Every structure is written in C-alpha cells, then in structure tokens.
Amino acid sequence: MFVKRLCDNAESELHTITDKGINHENLDMAYKLMDIYKNCKKVMMMEEPQKTSQRMTSVEEKRFEFINELEGMLTEASPEEKEYIQDYITKIRG
C-alpha cells in the first residue's frame, strides 16, 4: 500500500530529524513531514471504515463505563459533590 509506505517514510524521517535535533534548517521539513504523516493517517482511516467504527465503539463503551462509575459515586456523595458529579456527567454526555 503506497499510503502506508509514505506514512512510514515520513515517520522515519521525522525520527531522524528529532534524533539530530530540530533547528532552523530542518524546521520547515519537519512541518511538511508532519503534514504528510497526518494526511496519510487520515487516508488510511478512511480506507478502513470498519476498524474506525470499531474504535469509535470502543471509545463509546469507555465513555459509558465512566458515566456508570460516576453515577455509582452519586449514592455516597455529599450534596455539593452530587451537584459537581451531575454537572460532569451532563458535560460528558454532551
């Protein structure tokens, strides 16, 4: 896959630059390589929608677990803590 190789090469070059140290001579190249790397990652994510969907499901599961933990804390919390926790839950749910 061309995009993966391009991404790997950009990452390798970035490691080389950081190992040598970023300076005024290689700063522009580092920015360009970061853009290439970032764009390649986006393309690879778009090419694998199923894996992206699975990652989002995993994130949603973690979010749900965290909300459940917070709701469990409500039973033992003081009135001030309950208000704070409830506000936090509301923010997480969006």
Helix percent reads over 70%
Helix and strand element order: HHHH
pLDDT average, as an integer?
81
Report the span from N to C terminus. Answer: 38 Å
Number of helices: 4
| Low-confidence residue ranges | none
How is the biggest beta sheet arranged?
none
Number of strands: 0
Radius of gyration: 21 Å
Strand content: under 5%
Description:
The structure is a single chain. 85% of the residues lie in helices and 0% in strands. The relative contact order is 0.08. The model has no long low-confidence stretch (mean pLDDT 81). With 94 residues, the protein is an all-alpha fold. It contains 4 helices and no strands. The radius of gyration is 21 Å and the shape is elongated. The protein starts with a helix and ends with a helix.
What is the strand and helix layout of this fold?
Blueprint: H1 2-20, H2 27-47, H3 49-73, H4 79-93
Helix pairs in contact: 1-2, 3-4
Question: What is this entry, summarized?
Answer:
With 94 residues, the protein is mainly α.
